[in-house]
């Protein structure tokens, strides 16, 4: 397939039909279109299949196969598309801070990007899951930046910065990132760890997320959350693998087809959830 055909296939996949001139307007439009079309998900690590980062594998899975992926797959795809359009893009590495104790130091286990445009550097990231950015942010501290979903800010100073989101009335840290350039080979080792090590969350639970118009959807095993931006949050418990599959298709746009490994793993996780729920309370 020619490079033009691959680009057109990607643009069709994310539902983008505007100008592809490498300017801020195009970057903003693509940064919204990508995560709303391609869900964050960890099905491959969960069922024990490898996560491949070469271009052909990612395009086959996320574009042609109408599947999702996690940060390395999502952001490598987005970075390659931006470069093909003429943007200057640098891969970055980040340490996750979300839901971790203050001061805890984690691995550089996340990928983000810096996009240089018109003398301004932007942080781009279409693969953070439940709080994935839906717009690029100026790499500038001391300002609050609105997106189609939440408000974000960047703190710190060169070369180490921190991305924070306004959740309710509280600023919550997402990750700490450095501006040192990372090359594609640099993501191979952390990708292998995240997709194969028993301690990785992606080996333990189903994690799916997708932003929609004015809302965010998340699936943690069989716990579905639909959060309306600035409004109420709906929560549902899915009771069967069939129901999980239906929600993956209808709410997250994930086309699985026959997948006995997924059905077996999800059946085990549902059984474990039911057993934990049925445990009697410990008398006090």
Automatic annotation (TrEMBL):
This is Arylamine N-acetyltransferase. PANTHER family: ARYLAMINE N-ACETYLTRANSFERASE 4-RELATED, N-HYDROXYARYLAMINE O-ACETYLTRANSFERASE. Keywords: Transferase. It comes from Arsenicitalea aurantiaca. InterPro entries: Arylamine_N-AcTrfase, Papain-like_cys_pep_sf. The keyword RNA-binding does not apply. It comes from the Bacteria. Belongs to the arylamine N-acetyltransferase family.
């Amino acid at each position: 397939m020619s490079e033009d055909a691959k680009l057109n296939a990607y643009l069709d996949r994310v539902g983008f039909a505007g100008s592809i001139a490498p300017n801020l307007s195009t970057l903003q439009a693509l940064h919204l279109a990508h995560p709303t079309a391609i869900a964050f998900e960890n099905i491959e690590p969960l069922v024990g299949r490898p996560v491949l980062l070469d271009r052909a594998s990612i395009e086959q899975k996320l574009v042609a196969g109408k599947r999702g992926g996690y940060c390395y797959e999502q952001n490598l795809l987005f970075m390659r598309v931006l470069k093909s359009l003429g943007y200057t893009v640098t891969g970055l590495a980040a340490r996750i801070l979300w839901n971790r104790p203050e001061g805890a130091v984690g691995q550089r286990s996340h990928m983000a990007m810096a996009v240089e445009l018109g003398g301004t550097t932007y942080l781009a990231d279409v693969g953070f899951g439940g709080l994935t950015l839906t717009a690029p942010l100026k790499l500038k501290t001391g300002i609050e930046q609105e997106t189609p979903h939440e408000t974000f800010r960047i703190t710190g100073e060169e070369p180490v910065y921190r991305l924070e989101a306004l959740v309710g009335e509280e600023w919550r840290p997402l990750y700490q990132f450095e501006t040192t350039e990372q090359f594609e080979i640099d993501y191979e080792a952390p990708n292998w760890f995240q997709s194969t090590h028993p301690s990785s969350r992606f080996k333990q639970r189903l994690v799916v997320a997708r932003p929609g118009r004015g809302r965010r959807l998340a699936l943690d095993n069989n716990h579905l959350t639909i959060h309306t931006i600035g409004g109420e949050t709906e929560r549902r418990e899915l009771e069967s693998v069939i129901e999980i599959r239906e929600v993956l298709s209808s709410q997250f746009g994930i086309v699985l087809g026959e997948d006995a490994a997924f059905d077996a793993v999800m059946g085990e996780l549902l059984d474990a959830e039911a057993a934990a729920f049925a445990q009697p309370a410990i008398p006090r």
